[in-house]
Amino acid sequence: MNRAASDSTFKLVSYNIHKAIGIDRRRDPLRILNVLSEVDADIVILQEADRRFGMRERTLPDILVEQHTDYVPVPFDVQNDSMGWHGNTIMVRRGIDVLEHDILHIPYLEPRGVVTASVRLPAGAEVSVFGMHLDLSGLWRMRQARAISTLARAAQEQRPTLLAGDLNEWRPKGGCLKEFARHFTLLDCGRSFHSQRPLGRLDRIMHSASLEAIKTGVHHSALASHASDHLPVWATFRLPA
Predict the structure, then answer these.
(1) What are 213-220's contacts with CB under 8 Å, separation 24+?
(2) Model pTM greater than 0.85?
(3) CA nearest 92: which of 161, 11, 192, 212?
(4) Cα–Cα distance between 155 and 45 in angstroms, integer?
(5) Which of 109, 140, 212, 230 could be a cystine partner for 16, CB 3.0 to 4.6 Å?
């Protein structure tokens, strides 16, 4: 990793890592970490970072994260040996201070949750981020979007706010996207699912009006196309003056 947040910009990535299982059906956490190194973001939002059943063990061992990346996982400490909350987690580049963090309960049909953290960037600016993985049911996605929007609107009264994750929304503008768009700017980073032949814009990044998105994209490298069934989406933001 060689990029770092400048005085006025920072980069965020959202990535559904599919429990570190690639399209070859092999669990390979180091491959996921190498993809993150390619993207080289300052703030990382992950989905499916824990196994779904049993003890829900983390799929990215601490020792590998420490030895092979410049990231520090936000310590949600929900369950022993889990990395996040219902598979959602946040990591930040070393040098970024975590001021607050929490898990959020939302309405659900399947087990779902949201993670959030407020961080201070090296330049001194503070931002709040929300990471999520929404339901497969459109009705429940709408309910979840309303609940998350309410919480994120409260957060943006204190700091510029970002939301990111796998929204599971196939419609380009409808469904839960319409609900989020009432209060936040939705970025179209590009098609991120399936990693072998991207068709769906399931992975999204959203932001409050106090932030300016200056560049967005989907990271579609040879490694990323095999590491998970999703591709990472990213955005670079300019901080408010």
Answers:
(1) 213/185, 213/187, 213/237, 214/9, 214/238, 216/187, 216/188, 216/189, 216/190, 217/189, 217/190, 218/189, 218/190, 218/191, 218/192, 219/13, 219/35, 219/38, 219/39, 220/195
(2) yes
(3) 11
(4) 17
(5) 230
Question: The dihedral of CA 36, 41, 42, 43: what is its sign?
Answer: negative
CA-wise closest residue to 198 among 176, 180, 216, 224: 224
Rg over CA atoms, the chain: 16
Name the amino acid, one letter, at 211.
L
- β-strand partners of 212: 238
- 47 within 8 A of 131, measured Cβ to Cβ: yes
Mean pLDDT of successive 10-residue stretches along the chain, which has 241 residues: 71 98 97 98 97 79 96 88 92 98 92 95 95 96 97 97 98 94 97 97 97 97 98 95 72
CATH code matching the domain that covers 9-238, chosen among 3.40.50.300, 3.90.1150.10, 1.10.287.80, 3.60.10.10: 3.60.10.10
By DSSP bridging, strand 43-47 and strand 71-73 are unpaired
